[in-house]
Amino acid sequence: MKSTTDGRWAHLACAIWIPETCLSDIKRMEPIDGLNRINKDRWKLLCSICGVSYGACIQCSNNNCRVAYHPLCARAAGFCCELGDEDRLHLMSFEEDEENQCIQLLSFCKRHRPLSNDRLIKDERTTWKTIENLDYAPPSNPSGCARCEPYNYAGRRGRKEPEALAAAPLKRLYVENMPHLVSGLIQHGALSNMVSAKSATDSKALVDLLNLRKSYLDTSTSILSMAEKYKFMRATFKKRLAFGKSRIHGFGIFAKLPHIAGDMMIEYAGELVRPPVADRREHLIYNSLVGAGTYMFRIDDERVIDATRAGSIAHLINHSCEPNCYSRVISVNGDEHIIIFAKRDIKQWEELTYDYRFLSIDEQLACYCGFPRCRGVVNDTEAEERAVKLHASRDELIEWDAE
Ligand SMILES: C[S@@+](CC[C@H](N)C(=O)[O-])C[C@H]1O[C@@H](n2cnc3c(N)ncnc32)[C@H](O)[C@@H]1O
């Protein structure tokens, strides 16, 4: 994948990657030259905002400027950071080198940005112009330092303050996660050409999948152990899956090859944290930097996987009320893994979805999956109703006098 010395390209994952130092010290934002000389002949790429060295920075789109930075540091610093070509499909064919699956970002450093916080759009004559100021400002910190604030149990998962709720639609716009309605089973409209040429590609895709299986697995045995399936899944997910612009929300994951019900699709990987840590990160950091999306996967009441800064492309899988996948925690050689399995046969270029079963008593997240049986919300309404029945307020509790 291209990194930044030639500028303006970044991995999708890096576009939502926040370096640790940015989280702890967001004030050090004075741009310095992106390329720092380490010794006489070598140059090292440093983020001009957080100062951390990381290969996948992006560079200012001004041709004469060499300032480089992480996409998320740029967002935090108020630099313009947009997708260079919104409509470009990022789904490559099976043969195409996956190294080329890049997203082009158009971005300007502090010096070259047109106007503070302005977004750029391409008009009909394909010149760049600014549109209305979004006036987005991350919510302020009451105590001045996030790390000093006590943990707010009432604010757990979804219970947001009024100003945060009011800012949510703006945040959505800010990160350009505009929802689209789906139009059928194959959810990517721009893939219609591929779909019309389906019969020809289907048989080829099947041959590709069989060849892939043959090359990785001992085909003399048709029954595979969980460990073998896991190994195959890990070794081949880049060949089988790709990310692309979704009709449901932002980016999504698509099957490059057809899959059958029960196939292990991909592992949901990330950093294992406790729920209070996940809530705090989401509330204080990600909500303002990443935008309206969340990359947390709740395993149970004790464990949450935070895939915002680490993990695979699995964190881009969108929710659907009629999903083609489901998630399970499995144990392989004594280690637990969250695996996304195919719930039914999945066609080539179909978007992968699973039911998030989002649980929040106070917040409802509108669903844009567009399937006939869509609940209208991402929330697991039945589970929430059950939770409400189990919940008793303090004044409803009766004092118990032990005899
Ligand atoms: C793990 S991200 C999924 C990837 C996301 N599309 C992106 O581009 O980053 C989860 C977020 O995507 C959005 N999302 C996913 N599925 C959705 C759906 N069916 N309807 C509305 N929003 C959805 C929600 O904002 C959710 O918090």
From TrEMBL:
Domain called SET: residue spans: 239-357
Signal peptide: none
Pfam families reported for this sequence: SET, zf-HC5HC2H_2
Lineage top rank: taxon: Eukaryota
Record's keyword annotation contains Methyltransferase: yes
Record domain Post-SET: where: 363-379
Record key words, sorted: Metal-binding, Methyltransferase, S-adenosyl-L-methionine, Transferase, Zinc, Zinc-finger
Gene Ontology MF, one: histone H3K4 methyltransferase activity
SUPFAM superfamilies recorded: SET domain
Domain PHD-type as annotated: residue spans: 1-113
Alphabetical GO biological process terms: epigenetic regulation of gene expression; methylation; regulation of transcription by RNA polymerase II; vegetative to reproductive phase transition of meristem
Protein name as catalogued: Zinc finger transcription factor
Gene3D superfamilies in the record: SET domain, Zinc/RING finger domain, C3HC4 (zinc finger)
A GO CC annotation given for this chain: chromatin
Species of origin: Lithospermum erythrorhizon
